[in-house]
Design goal:
The chain is mainly alpha-helical. The chain has one domain: Winged helix-like DNA-binding domain superfamily/Winged helix DNA-binding domain (Arc Repressor Mutant, subunit A, Orthogonal Bundle), CATH 1.10.10. Helices cover 61% and strands 8% of the residues. The protein has seven helices and two strands, in the order αααααββαα. The protein has helices spanning 9-20, 24-36, 43-50, 56-61, 63-69, 92-104, 106-120; strands spanning 73-77, 83-87. A two-stranded antiparallel sheet has the order 1-2. The longest helix has 15 residues, at 106-120.
């Protein structure tokens, strides 16, 4: 790794091993949330960003609940039906993913930010 790198090879290895144990949907969620960090999104916004064809409710019942239990994401309940979701920047794997996304994922971040702006503007 170059001197510019902010992620060690050990952190990268741990991230790869951790990601290998996750489903494709879990990986999509974490990659999305890492790229838009520190921003939080609703479940509906997240489903649109990752191209999930199901409803946000089905995400909450399984996938997001598991990621929350594993402390990879944080879910703040704003109302009985609205949750604010963000990646847990204190989790070691999430922290590494955020660092990589910040260093190398500027174009993907722009894509997500544009999609969020479009969604907010109707």
């Amino acid at each position: 790794m170059s001197e510019e790198s902010i992620v060690t090879t050990k952190e990268m290895y741990d991230l790869l091993i951790g990601f290998a144990s996750l489903s494709e949907l879990n990986r999509k969620i974490l990659l999305c949330l890492a790229h838009i960090y520190p921003r939080a999104v609703s479940g509906v916004q997240l489903t649109k960003l990752i191209g999930y064809s199901g409803k946000a409710k089905s995400l909450y019942r399984g996938v997001l609940q598991r990621l929350t239990e594993e402390k990879l994401i944080l879910s703040d309940k704003l109302t009985s039906k609205l949750h604010s979701l963000r990646i847990n920047h204190l989790h070691p794997l999430a922290k590494t993913l955020i660092a990589i996304a910040e260093q190398h994922g500027k174009k993907i971040r722009e894509m997500y930010e544009n999609a969020l702006r479009t969604d907010e503007n109707g």
